[in-house]
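User: Good morning. I'm curious how coenzyme A would be positioned relative to this chain. Could you predict the structure with it bound?
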Amino acid sequence: MKRFELGDLQRVLAIEQSSFAEDAWDRKLFLQYHRQCPDLFLIAKVGRGIVGYAITCVNSRGAELASIAVHPRDRRRGVAKALLDYTGSHLRAKRIKTWRLTVATENEPGIRFYEEYGFKRTRLVRRYYGARRDGYSMRLDLIA
Ligand SMILES: CC(C)(COP(=O)(O)OP(=O)(O)OC[C@H]1O[C@@H](n2cnc3c(N)ncnc32)[C@H](O)[C@@H]1OP(=O)(O)O)[C@@H](O)C(=O)NCCC(=O)NCCS
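Assistant: Good morning! Here's the predicted structure, ligand included:
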């Protein structure tokens, strides 16, 4: 696990394309997150290769998981869980109480992954992903 650096961008973009296809974020958006949330823009490595990333931003309401993806070839090996564990330990150390995210209602694997991790659905957000696609807000309380 390490912080994102500019040299990682091509590989992150490839993971993004293979994970989100037409919804993939572009270079500009990743660079914006790198500027705004550099501390918890994390890269997961297996051997020398980058296999996944996660971005969490901290604001006055708590923390927000902006995105997470693992290359399809490297899924179901605990990579995303390791990214959340690493991020979560940093958030707890900073005494941040809540971690939020929004996931598309149709993204069943994503929802299962978050629920398995302990996030709870809090509400339905209509048209979060454009005209016809809704999202769920989810929340994990970091400090009981
Ligand atoms: C969601 C995603 C990040 C999970 O990454 P991953 O590295 O495969 O997840 P992990 O191996 O850490 O999974 C941990 C646990 O979550 C659950 N889980 C993960 N993927 C799952 C799936 N496709 N279906 C059901 N449960 C799943 C399982 O309980 C899993 O444990 P197990 O493999 O021992 O059963 C990955 O599937 C992905 O990149 N998807 C496309 C991008 C995306 O949808 N991101 C989330 C929305 S922003």
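Residues 124 and 136 are 5 Å apart (CA to CA). Residues 79-93 form the longest helix (15 residues).
Let me know if you'd like a different ligand tried.
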